[in-house]
Specification:
This protein has a single domain, classed as Rossmann fold (3-Layer(aba) Sandwich), CATH 3.40.50.10490. The protein is 52% helix and 11% strand. It has helices at 8-22, 25-40, 52-68, 79-89, 94-101, 126-138, 152-156, 171-188; strands at 45-48, 72-73, 109-114, 141-146, 159-162. Helix 3 packs parallel to helix 8. The radius of gyration is 17 Å and the shape is globular. The N and C termini lie far apart (40 Å). 39% of the residues are buried.
Length: 199
């Protein structure tokens, strides 16, 4: 906690600058190649996230489809199906069962946006954990942007960028903001973007 509230503005924005300078640029390049492979193989990208990350998933689906012509979907975009699955099969199975109905296969990629990335021991983001396990079983590529390097996603994913932890107090805002920064980088990359933006 910042003792002097007058310094919070500088502290907040300096943290974002620091995180941007420390982001793993090599992994960003690998993301581009992973997504090119999925597109070349006529695979699909399934965006998964909960909370604020779920909102980011919807936006990312739009951008990947519209700007890159990459077939993309997210279970959070159909509230009727998602809540029916939660009601009938439970929260922990909601994403996994949706992916099974979507015929997830080795040509596809899971692109998970998460602050913590799931934790089995603490029973956190169990629906993401089960989706990751299914992705491994189906030999799908597992990509992610996460805030914690010790979560399930960071341990099990094929290519996962951990947003540099500049401040525990800012873990969530940094993680969820950089999800947007990074996917916008990807859809703007000359190797991926095929359609121009309006403005």
């Amino acid at each position: 906690m910042i003792s002097n509230k007058k310094n919070f503005t500088n502290y907040y924005f300096d943290s974002f600058i620091s995180a941007a300078n420390k982001i793993n640029k090599k992994k960003l390049g690998l993301f581009v190649e992973d997504l090119l492979t999925v597109k070349k193989n006529h695979g699909r990208v399934f965006f998964l996230g909960v909370g604020g990350s779920a909102g980011n998933c919807s936006h990312a689906v739009n951008d990947f489809r519209k700007l890159c012509n990459i077939e993309s979907y997210s279970p959070v975009d159909n509230v009727s199906e998602l809540t029916a699955r939660i009601n009938d099969e439970g929260w922990e199975n909601s994403f996994k069962d949706w992916l099974i109905a979507s015929n997830l296969n080795k040509k596809d990629a899971l692109f998970i946006l998460s602050v913590g990335g799931g934790n089995k021991k603490k029973n956190i983001s169990t629906n993401l954990i089960k989706a990751i396990d299914l992705g491994i079983k189906k030999k799908s590529r597992i990509l992610g942007i996460v805030g914690k390097e010790d979560g399930y996603l960071a341990k099990k994913g094929d290519n996962v960028i951990a947003v540099p932890l500049i401040s525990k107090k800012l873990l969530t805002p940094l993680s969820e903001s950089f999800q947007s920064v990074i996917w916008h980088y990807l859809v703007s990359h000359p190797k991926l973007q095929v359609n121009s933006t309006k403005w």
